[in-house]
Amino acid sequence: MAGGGAGVAKRLGTLLSGLLECGAFCGIIFGWASLVFVLKDLGYFKDLCQPTATPSPNRTLLPDCSWQDEQFSLVFTIGSFMNNFVTFPMGFIFDRFGTTVARLIAISLYTGGTLLVAFSTPELAVLLFPAMSMLSVGGILLLLTNMQVGNLFGKYRSIIITLYNGAFDSSSAIFLIIKVLYEHGLSLRAMFLFMAACSAWHLLRTLFLMPRTHIPYPLPPAYDYGLRCPGRSQSYRTYEEKRPPGEAGPEETPLEPSAPRGARGDGDPPGVSFRACVCSRVFAWHVAWLSVMQLRHYLFIGTLNPLLDHLARGDSHLVSTYTNAFAFTQLCGVLCAPWNGLILDRHKRGKTPRPEGAVGALADLRASVLSLVVTVTLCVLFSVCAAVPMLPVQFATFVLQVLSRSFLYGGNAAFLAIA
Asked: In angstroms, rounded to a whole number, what is the distance separating the alpha carbons of residues 263 and 281?
């Protein structure tokens, strides 16, 4: 860990506050099943329910709410789609304009989303569509800006990246808290107004505990970040201004010494462009792999409430119990994700120092193979359990789902950082 301007206390403050931010705000849309329970109780989309006659002797009329379930699933589907579709333009904004601009956009989207939910009613249930999309995009952008915090901790970088992704998974339990508080008499509007007010905390963290541009890797000497009252921000830009002319900065230093002009061999690759990275087979296969895995998880989360309702034969108490159990398991995401980080960083903890340059990068890639295999195995086991139409088996499904998701997102972020 490089010594310098930002002390251990400040780095730990950034790490822990980022962990809280990811764990309480970034991925709350994935706790959708708990919020749906509340929204159904409030009567959102209830006009889509149609009365049907049961085969009982007295021809009791029970509502058929399949259209209501489809509408709730559509809200989640659009929100989760935006979570992935907007990642690319948001990543461009983050790279082009830096951390502060990206986080201000994220905070604006997040605040707008919470306010839309707060002021929605059963008559204005359509507001859920833009609200969930804004919460989803704002949350993923906050997560993207927090990934770079791993650069502050050197050899623990992959562990911290996976830890943040685990906290992102665990944030889905926030909707469980909302569900429990709602059952104890707190209104949905009051809770979402409180979440909107928390944007002030995000703003303070943006100003004082995050860089204006990016956290470089490896860290330059005396690196500092954030505003310093009443002085000037000692960010990477300040370091760049102080650097003697002609000296290479940390992001400009090549991994290996450059060959003299004309000495490059025929087989030596030139500098890799962004287009070459996007068109590479490794990236294409990784995107395809991630898309299939994510689709499985999104399908499960988006259809969980009607699935539990079907398996419980309409028993709302059972549905509530299993919904709570699912949300509680999501809290464990932050505990499961570092296991994947340990797998990814296992070759860095030996007595032999990690090789530098391209050889070290290749060692990192090889270490990620086991992580990818374990992730796929967990997803297969989760899918098998989810296919069993028995309620008690769903407890095992919930556990395997949170393990699989934690390994998927944490391993994906770390793999992209390595590759």
From this structure: 28
